[in-house]
Amino acid sequence: YVKIGYTNNPKIRLGEMQTGNPFKLEIVKLLENKTQQQEKKLHKKLQSKHNNLYKRGEWYHKDIINQGVIL
């Protein structure tokens, strides 16, 4: 799975998420200069157009990247 979210500090956020996860997490893609409002719009768009790839919260099946949905 992949998580799509907003943060001001990706390295710190990754460390926070890693603490509660037994698998090694990595940053796959960073979208620069996005706002929390833009991120919320992205989630609504993804959940309506790609509901089959939506898991829960801000989590999606990895195919959301493999299929080129998130570039």
Architecture overview:
With 71 residues, the protein is of the alpha+beta class. It is built from three helices and three strands. Strands 1-3-2 form a three-stranded antiparallel beta sheet. A hairpin with a 2-residue loop joins β2 (54-56) and β3 (59-60). It is globular. The protein starts with a strand and ends in a 5-residue tail after the last helix.
Draw up the topology in text.
Blueprint: E1 2-3, H1 10-19, H2 36-49, E2 54-56, E3 59-60, H3 63-66
Antiparallel strand pairs: 1-3, 2-3
Approximately what portion of the residues adopt beta-strand conformation?
Answer: 5-15%
Q: For the terminal residues, how far apart are their CA atoms?
A: 16 Å
Strand order of the largest sheet: 1-3-2
DSSP helical segment count: 3
List keywords for this structure.
71 residues, alpha+beta, 3 helices, 3 strands, 39% helix
